[in-house]
Amino acid sequence: MFRYIYTIFILTVGFFVIFVFALLVFVDKDLSQNYGNVQSRNQYQKNNFINKELSVADGSLQNDLNTDNIFPDAQEVRDDNDHVSKQYIFVEDAYSNNVVVIDTEGNIVKRIKTGKNPHDIAVSPDNRYVATANFASNSVSIIDTVKLENIADVYTGRGAHGVVFDRSGRYIYVVNSLENTMSIVNIENLSDINTRKIYVNKYPEYVGVTYDNKYIFVVNLSEKGLITVLRNKGLNSEIAKTLYLNTDTHGFSMSPDSNMIMFTNMEDRNVFIVSGDDFTVKRNIDVKVSTELAAFRSDDEIWMTNIDNPYVYIYDVLSNRITGRIRVGPMPHGVFFNRSRDMAFVPLYDSGYLVFLDTNTRKEVKRINIGKNLHNAVVVDIMM
């Protein structure tokens, strides 16, 4: 009897153990499957969120996460809308009648044909177009910076020399030095470009627009240092006043931090700082060297060149002294900065070299030969 009860007990315990074991396996399998589903769902939601963030710019939703597109290439920068921006330098080669496009590593990307003998170059506020004033063909060339193509050549007037876009990007202003006029070029519709010419006093050489877009100013080659100021009204622009600096004015530079304009002087060793609000002279600075072209690195630091001098001179406004000079070679034609102003580019007119300078160490980084008779340059951020 006892053996019978013991056998029943052992069988019962055995069946109970088997049942518990089977139940645990089943529950574990179910829990694992559910946990896996939760992980998959969380990963999908995370990926879907990232995809939505990445695709906001073009309005589409991606089905698959492409991790290759999350981080840009080291040479590229992304804007807030996740577009890729590449920075190029556009330099005029007046001898070959083209613009040379160079990346920040010093590689020649493309040569773009312009009109004959390009003398000045400008970029539109949105960086979409570059324009060159072509002295020998009396025209302005308009370049699409995305396609890297010359899309239009527009007749302006004899001796086209200086060029600028207004701050709206709707108009290009070109001064024609051999006929004392300024051409106003309306580019709102590139298939139907309208132009108008107005008189802007004798020997206009360069042209600029104030930051607030209210005024256009023309630098006239004159012993009296004539600056012609116009109210910016597009095709209806008109002369508002004339300013005499009583010296041989040549180039100009807009300050990066304020609405100030610096006018250079080829004969004497001074530059004039003028307010862009009312064109009153704020300062007359003795910069110690004869200056043909100059550029603000900041409101307090000016980089200067003279085509007869192989150096770039650096002038500190606060201490009123030259704090450095960099030998770049014969016939430097201006200084042009990138957006962050940690790099400067100096075209050498006769030899055709473009010199790259580190503005922090004040040392040459590299130089590349790109042509002959180099004039001015602009730095362009191109959205890809």
Query: Could you say what the CATH topology of the largest domain is called?
Result: Methylamine Dehydrogenase, Chain H
Could you estimate the helical fraction of the residues in percent? Answer: 10-25%
SSE arrangement, N to C: HEEEEEEEEEEEEEEEEEEEEEEEEEEEEE
Tell me the count of domains.
2
Mean pLDDT: 83
Strand % is: over 45%
CATH homologous superfamily (4th level) name of the largest domain: YVTN repeat-like/Quinoprotein amine dehydrogenase
Number of strand elements:
29
Number of helices: 1
Summarize the biggest pleated sheet: 5 strands, antiparallel
Summarize the structure.
By secondary structure, this protein is mainly beta. The protein has one helix at residues 2-55; strands spanning 77-78, 84-93, 98-103, 108-113, 118-123, 129-134, 139-144, 149-155, 160-165, 171-176, 181-186, 194-199, 204-209, 215-220, 226-231, 238-244, 249-254, 260-265, 270-275, 281-286, 293-298, 301-306, 309-316, 321-327, 336-337, 343-347, 353-358, 363-369, 374-383.
Annotate the secondary structure layout.
Elements: H1 2-55, E1 77-78, E2 84-93, E3 98-103, E4 108-113, E5 118-123, E6 129-134, E7 139-144, E8 149-155, E9 160-165, E10 171-176, E11 181-186, E12 194-199, E13 204-209, E14 215-220, E15 226-231, E16 238-244, E17 249-254, E18 260-265, E19 270-275, E20 281-286, E21 293-298, E22 301-306, E23 309-316, E24 321-327, E25 336-337, E26 343-347, E27 353-358, E28 363-369, E29 374-383
Antiparallel strand pairs: 1-2, 2-3, 2-29, 3-4, 5-6, 6-7, 7-8, 9-10, 10-11, 11-12, 13-14, 14-15, 15-16, 17-18, 18-19, 19-20, 21-22, 22-23, 23-24, 25-26, 26-27, 27-28
